[in-house]
């Protein structure tokens, strides 16, 4: 009898547990029910995420938010942006205040394992560097012994700074700030000899200077900073969607599919790879819980990876970054879209 009662109790508990799991909405279901994506973004980093005076957001990470909305709704504007500081970004995601974080965030083992978060992909390979005034007269970070360095608190940047000076037996004076903009303004006002953050951020923040050419980025890269979107751990379907949005943009660039020719190629191309990406062959969108035109919508409405890079942070933009490590693997870079097949 005890065995039978235990079996019944176990079955009841399992049923309750299953019902609770079944009742919980996935992130995709919540987004669809709401009718828009809520995206955590940088409060103001030129080229990556910044709103204008009318509240219109632009930037590399912003375009990834729009690409995700395009994949889900067929509308890149079905997204709201929440500006988040480095301190608040992960807490906001954990608390469910945002659906996804696209905010130049570095993937580390601590963040990946102890915060209840996942990094589905790396959309920008970066590394930390130093910005100095040309008046300082240095050409290498190894000449910064005894320098004061402006840095944002509570970031991998602060930890990397300490590691670099310790490793090279140099002294320095850290001048820390809660917000990156405060650190930049302090540097530009002469309170610090140098400012440090990711090299892409240095290129962006240099634009705040009255004369950007009076400031140089030193050649040393002192860390690895794999930057990418962040989602809550445990919702595998949502992580898959964010991951394959990135891969679709990379695959499109490799196949030469752009925002300008996507519609024509969808109607005329007989190339199997192009047909799979654009949804005329296979049911890959359904595998993600999306329509089969998911990737077509991303590319036609937002663009492939190269287009998004070039218009926001590429060499022809005010930020002026070369592709470098973020070139496709076919051009010697690290960006490598996985096959849609």
TrEMBL record:
Signal sequence region? 1-24
- Report the residue ranges that make up the Solute-binding protein family 3/N-terminal domain in this protein: 36-265
Keyword Magnesium belongs to the record: no
Q: Which GO terms describe its biological process?
A: amino acid transport
Q: Which CDD domains match?
A: PBP2_BztA (cd13692)
Q: List the SMART domains.
A: PBPb
> So which domain of life are we looking at?
Bacteria
Q: Which UniProt keywords apply?
A: Signal, Transport
**Is Ribonucleoprotein among the key words of this record?**
no
UniProt record similarity statement: Belongs to the bacterial solute-binding protein 3 family.
Q: What is this protein called?
A: Amino acid ABC transporter substrate-binding protein
The scientific name of the source species is Salinarimonas ramus
């Amino acid at each position: 009898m005890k065995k039978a009662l235990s079996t019944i109790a176990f079955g009841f508990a399992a049923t309750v547990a299953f019902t609770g799991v079944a009742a919980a909405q996935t992130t995709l279901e919540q987004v669809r029910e709401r009718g828009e994506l809520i995206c955590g973004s940088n409060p103001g980093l030129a080229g990556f995420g910044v709103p204008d005076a009318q509240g219109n957001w632009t930037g590399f990470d912003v375009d990834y938010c729009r690409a995700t909305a395009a994949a889900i709704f067929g509308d890149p504007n079905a997204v709201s942006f929440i500006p988040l500081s480095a301190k608040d970004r992960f807490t906001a995601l954990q608390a469910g205040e945002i659906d996804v974080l696209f905010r130049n965030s570095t993937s580390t083992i601590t963040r990946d394992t102890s915060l209840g978060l996942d990094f589905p992909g790396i959309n920008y390979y970066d590394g930390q560097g130093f910005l100095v005034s040309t008046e300082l007269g240095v050409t290498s970070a190894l000449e910064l012994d005894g320098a004061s360095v402006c840095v944002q608190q509570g970031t991998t940047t602060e930890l990397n700074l300490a590691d670099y000076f310790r490793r090279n037996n140099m002294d320095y004076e850290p001048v820390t700030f809660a917000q990156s903009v405060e650190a930049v303004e302090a540097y530009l006002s002469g309170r610090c000899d140098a400012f440090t953050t990711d090299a892409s951020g240095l290129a962006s923040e240099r634009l705040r200077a009255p004369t950007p050419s009076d400031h140089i980025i030193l050649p040393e890269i002192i860390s690895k900073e794999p930057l990418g979107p962040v989602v809550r751990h445990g919702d595998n379907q949502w992580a898959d969607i964010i991951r394959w949005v990135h891969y679709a943009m990379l695959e499109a660039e490799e196949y030469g599919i752009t925002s300008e020719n996507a519609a024509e190629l969808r109607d005329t191309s007989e190339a199997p790879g192009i047909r799979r990406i654009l949804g005329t062959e296979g049911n890959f969108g359904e595998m993600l819980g999306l329509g089969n035109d998911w990737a077509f919508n991303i590319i036609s409405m937002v663009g492939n990876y190269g287009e998004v890079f070039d218009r926001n942070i590429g060499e022809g933009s005010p930020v002026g970054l070369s592709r470098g490590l973020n070139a496709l693997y076919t051009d010697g870079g690290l960006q490598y879209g996985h096959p849609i097949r």
